[in-house]
Amino acid sequence: MTHTIEVIDRGDKVEAEDGQTILNALLEGGVEWLHACGGFCNCTTCRVKIEEGEENISDMEEDEKNTLRRFQGDEVLDGPFRLSCQVKVYGDVKISEPEWL
Ligand code: FES
Question: What is the CATH number of the domain that holds 11?
Answer without folding.
Answer: 3.10.20.30
